[in-house]
């Protein structure tokens, strides 16, 4: 009998190539996702040392971070530096023979949306990318995390990564979510409860009835922000929901291979009695629609709350909150629902999937966005966009007064022309509210797609439960 | 990679928690395809206004700290994105050591791959180092990797922990990829085994 193992332990064990006496491990990587911003120096490194990509068939490249989301981008990108990066990815993908989805391909989109959509991401795999939100893929029960550019080069050259094993952390969400509460509210509430360093050194496994009830889209939203809680990765054990989502995707196994895969995938769960170094439990019933008020994703409160007083915090956080409120232009005691907004951004790898667009469109149907508010919908991939058009969602957004864009990261990190102006305030479905994230001196409030749609109509942050 | 042995230099106090990678190097500077030249944009939005004028209050703009080689900061340093541009910018500026109560995971890894020593130390020790750093240009701190020891300007010593493999690589300036390629046989074996066990991968 082996000791009971967690899901993370199992995936780890199945990918261990070698362990040195000092505990340093070499881990095999099944999928490597590559984008234009964090890879040029890695490919350059390979060229300089005459190295090849070890497993080009396990490497997928797609430009997403700085591509414009307006028409014409397949023939010309105005910004010279962005153009150079996209051209470099084009060249590197072709020179090194990796799987590639250029902007002209309808399958192009945010790397963390393309991977699952194309069936590249499968349960039990190790998945890495030079992007911290690689955690998204953990929704499939795959061990997925972000890496730096030196590590990108390391994986390209060796298909392995040097790692130290993390600790196990369990985040359980019991019971059912109230109406109007979504996966985004779960993941933000967890970070609100644990802090942005709460998961440091750990891999989180999300479990419990409320997690089981989520669709794959919702699970990806939850795992996406594991990194904002400081964790190396987030995981959800695969189940029928996962298998249904994966089956039939272009790169998912077929026939006998599918059967073999399925029987393996069904062993991927934490054994009864497996040890977790840290456990956090939230009651689904207690979770409300939340928004962030500050410049750290841990600055989360239910929409019914008020802007907190810096003095109510402890240690270094007092100064951080003071700075945050000054940056955000907010006063302690102000009701969150009184915060007026200038822009609404619906998209990103957190909330740029079809279900997210459906949730927002549901609220927006037959309504108009408030005067003076700019609305941007950026589907997570060309395929999400096409599906939303087919379902009539695009028309709902357009009728409401939103701009309907091409796929990419867009205003999630504002490396392309989609940016907030100085002092502008945005209700955003993305994952980071850091200073300057959506534009120099731009102000970000993170929330769910439904809450973003509600804010667009009201012109200020508002409780979506009052609209449904 | 550059070797890291001992650094004796000015330490700059940056007394903030959750210093994120967007603060360290804002995204407009990620559009480079090189690894160098980012130091001039380190902490850009805190260091300069939109016209590129220096903010005199920011610590690295104060005469005492312009050549700092050590940075002392608050917990969860380097949180946010995986951009290696953050350690590239820190290194290019001339900082070789960052000391904080805790670090974000990816940032922490990225540091050692670029010859930067990131040292997590308990909050009470960081408090002492922060005070020492506030003394300015004549207060020089020594960080000795071989002996795993930080010495303040007035001679107080604090030991620190570091993973043996990281220490070895830093001390000898070793390149991870070269080391791993020596294990090619083990990788071949793993791939062959996995092709039978998990043929769908
Ligand atoms: S959408 Fe945002 S968080 Fe996701 S990969 Fe793009 S920039 Fe990163």
Describe the structure in your own words.
The complex is a heterodimer of chains A (468) and B (201). Chain A is an alpha/beta fold and 468 residues long. Chain A is built from 16 helices and 19 strands. In chain A, the strands form five sheets. Chain A has a five-stranded parallel sheet with strand order 5-4-3-6-7, with helices on both faces. In chain A, strand 4, helix 3 and strand 5 form a beta-alpha-beta unit. In chain A, helix 2 packs across helix 5 and helix 6 (183-194) packs parallel to helix 8 (216-224). The radius of gyration of chain A is 21 Å and the shape is globular. The mean pLDDT of chain A is 96. Chain B has a seven-stranded mixed sheet with strand order 4-3-2-1-5-6-7. The mean pLDDT of chain B is 94. The chains are: A alpha/beta (468), B alpha/beta (201). The interface between A and B is large, with 78 and 56 residues. The complex binds iron/sulfur cluster. Residues 64-65, 110, 112, 131, 133, 348-349, 409, 412-413, 430-431 of chain A line the site of iron/sulfur cluster (SF4). Iron/sulfur cluster (SF4) is lined by residues 64-65, 110, 112, 131, 133, 348-349, 409, 412-413, 430-431 of chain A.
List keywords for this structure.
A: 468 residues; alpha/beta; 5-stranded parallel sheet; 16 helices; B: alpha/beta; 7-stranded mixed sheet; 7 strands; binds iron/sulfur cluster
């Amino acid at each position: 009998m082996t000791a009971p193992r967690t899901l993370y332990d199992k995936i780890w064990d199945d990918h261990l190539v070698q362990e040195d006496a000092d505990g340093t491990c070499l881990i095999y990587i099944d999928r490597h996702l590559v984008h234009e911003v964090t890879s040029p120096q890695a490919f350059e490194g390979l060229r300089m040392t005459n190295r090849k990509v070890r497993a080009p068939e396990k490497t997928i490249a797609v430009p997403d971070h700085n591509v414009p989301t307006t028409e014409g981008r397949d023939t010309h990108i105005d910004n010279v530096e962005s153009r150079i990066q996209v051209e470099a990815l084009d060249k590197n993908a072709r020179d090194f023979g990796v799987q590639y989805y250029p902007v002209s391909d309808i399958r192009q989109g945010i790397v963390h949306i393309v991977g699952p959509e194309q069936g590249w991401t499968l349960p039990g795999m190790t998945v890495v990318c030079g992007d911290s939100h690689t955690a998204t893929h953990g929704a499939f029960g795959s061990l997925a995390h972000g890496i730096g550019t030196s590590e990108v080069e390391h994986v390209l050259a060796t298909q392995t990564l040097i790692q130290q094993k993390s600790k196990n952390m369990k985040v359980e969400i019991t019971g059912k979510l109230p109406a109007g509460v979504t996966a985004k509210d779960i993941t933000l509430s967890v970070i609100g409860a644990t802090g942005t360093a709460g998961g440091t050194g750990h891999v989180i496994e999300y479990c419990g009835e409320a997690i089981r009830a989520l669709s794959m889209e919702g699970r990806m939203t939850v795992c996406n922000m594991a990194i904002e809680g400081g964790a190396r990765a987030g995981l959800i054990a695969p189940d029928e929901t996962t298998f249904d989502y994966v089956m039939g995707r272009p790169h998912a196994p077929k026939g006998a291979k599918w059967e073999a895969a399925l029987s393996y995938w069904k062993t991927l769960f934490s054994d009864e009695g497996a040890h977790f170094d840290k456990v956090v439990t939230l009651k689904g019933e207690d979770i409300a629609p939340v928004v962030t008020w500050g410049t750290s994703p841990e600055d989360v409160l239910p929409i019914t709350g008020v802007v907190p007083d810096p003095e109510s915090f402890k240690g270094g956080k007092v100064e951080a909150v003071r700075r945050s409120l000054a940056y955000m232009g907010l006063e302690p005691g102000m009701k969150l629902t009184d915060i007026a907004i200038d822009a609404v951004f619906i998209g990103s790898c957190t909330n740029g999937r079809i279900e997210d667009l459906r949730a927002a469109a549901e609220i927006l149907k037959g309504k108009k966005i408030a005067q003076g508010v700019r609305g941007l919908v950026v589907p997570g991939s060309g395929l999400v966009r096409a599906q939303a058009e087919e379902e009539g969602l695009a028309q709902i957004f357009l009728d409401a007064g939103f701009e309907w864009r091409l796929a990419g990261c867009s205003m999630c990190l504002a490396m392309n022309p989609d940016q907030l102006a100085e002092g502008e305030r945005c209700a955003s479905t993305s994952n980071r509210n850091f200073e300057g994230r959506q534009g120099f001196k731009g102000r970000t409030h993170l929330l769910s797609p439904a809450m973003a749609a509600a804010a667009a109509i009201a012109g200020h942050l508002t409780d979506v439960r009052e609209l449904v | 990679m550059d070797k890291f042995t001992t650094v004796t230099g000015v330490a700059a106090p940056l007394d903030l928690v959750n210093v994120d990678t967007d603060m360290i190097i804002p995204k407009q500077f990620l559009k480079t395809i090189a690894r160098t030249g980012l130091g001039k944009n380190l902490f850009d939005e805190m260091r300069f206004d939109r016209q590129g004028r220096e903010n005199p209050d920011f610590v690295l703009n104060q005469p005492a700290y312009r050549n700092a080689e050590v940075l002392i900061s608050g917990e969860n340093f380097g949180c946010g994105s995986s951009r290696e541009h953050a350690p590239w910018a820190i290194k290019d500026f001339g900082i070789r050591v960052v000391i904080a109560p805790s670090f974000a995971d990816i940032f922490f890894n990225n540091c050692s791959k670029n010859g930067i020593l990131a040292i997590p130390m308990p909050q009470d020790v960081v408090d002492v180092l922060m005070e020492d750093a506030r003394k300015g240009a004549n207060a020089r701190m020594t960080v000795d990797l071989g002996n795993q020891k930080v010495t303040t300007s007035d001679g107080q010593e604090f030991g620190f922990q570091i993973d043996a493999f990281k220490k070895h690589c830093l001390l000898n300036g070793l390149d991870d990829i070269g080391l791993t390629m020596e294990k090619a046989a083990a990788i071949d074996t793993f791939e062959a085994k996995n092709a039978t066990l998990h043929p769908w991968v």
